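Here is the promised in-class demo. Please do not try to memorize the tokens; focus on the logic of going from shape to residues.
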């Protein structure tokens, strides 16, 4: 089994060939794709894709870049969307102090509101943390939430251990295939496979040898192979265990009977 635990199939980059992209994913052996909302309209689109395709699951939430657009009704709309049986997580939410598109104080305020909302909805959270490790960890810890994933994990092994202590998974993007990604490779080497997920984050972050191109779910095979190489395992086993981790984090089998 193979799962892309974090894609953005709803984005405009896939507008013209979404069907072919999903076909290639199927040919690559991908069983499920979790497509992740980043603002209200894209969350809506993610849910509608999940509604349309059996092998697609969706999440809803407002990315730190987009928190400036949160209005009076936004959370009510997200609550409503989250009732769909194929919505399996809340996110991606968090802090991005690299691009700082929204002011940091506003990012913190909206992150904390959305952690509460995730709790109210009883959904695991997908955390986006870029250049904000300490504050992200502190806020997650304070929220009391103990089910979720740090997506595109970019911390070091010390941070990884703290995330694991909180019961969180770490998600490994295609970046791990880059020669310079020594910190991430070290994390992958030392963190047990039972705490790792695989993701593309497509259309972003294509792994080698596709680096610089539009990413897509089928390329997750490259990431699985790199993780296998680092850990000295068969890539099929890496695929199977990380897929099982994804199913259990997102309660995907349970959601089929919701
Ligand atoms: Ni993403």
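The designed amino acids, position by position:
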């Amino acid at each position: 089994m193979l799962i892309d635990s974090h894609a953005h199939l709803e984005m405009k980059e896939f507008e013209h060939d979404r069907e072919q992209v999903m076909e290639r994913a199927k040919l690559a052996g991908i069983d499920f794709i979790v497509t992740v909302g980043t603002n209200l309209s894209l969350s809506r689109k993610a849910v509608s894709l999940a509604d349309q395709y059996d092998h697609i699951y969706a999440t809803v939430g407002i990315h730190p870049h987009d928190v400036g657009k949160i209005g009076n009704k936004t959370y009510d709309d997200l609550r409503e969307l989250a009732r769909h049986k194929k919505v399996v997580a809340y996110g991606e939410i968090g802090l991005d102090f690299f691009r700082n598109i929204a002011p940091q104080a506003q990012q913190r305020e909206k992150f904390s509101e959305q952690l509460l909302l995730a709790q109210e909805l009883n959904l695991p959270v997908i955390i986006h943390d870029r250049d904000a490790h300490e504050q992200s960890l502190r806020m997650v810890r304070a929220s009391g939430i103990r089910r979720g994933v740090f997506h595109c994990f970019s911390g070091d092994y010390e941070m990884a251990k703290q995330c694991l202590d909180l019961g969180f998974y770490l998600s490994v993007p295609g970046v791990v295939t880059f020669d310079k990604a020594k910190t991430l490779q070290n994390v992958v080497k030392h963190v047990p496979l039972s705490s790792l997920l695989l993701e593309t984050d497509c259309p972003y972050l294509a792994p080698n040898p596709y680096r610089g191109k539009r990413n897509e779910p089928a390329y997750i095979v490259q990431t699985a192979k790199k993780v296998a190489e680092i850990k000295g395992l068969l890539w099929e086993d890496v695929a199977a265990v990380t897929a099982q981790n994804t199913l259990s984090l997102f309660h995907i089998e349970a959601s089929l009977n919701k």
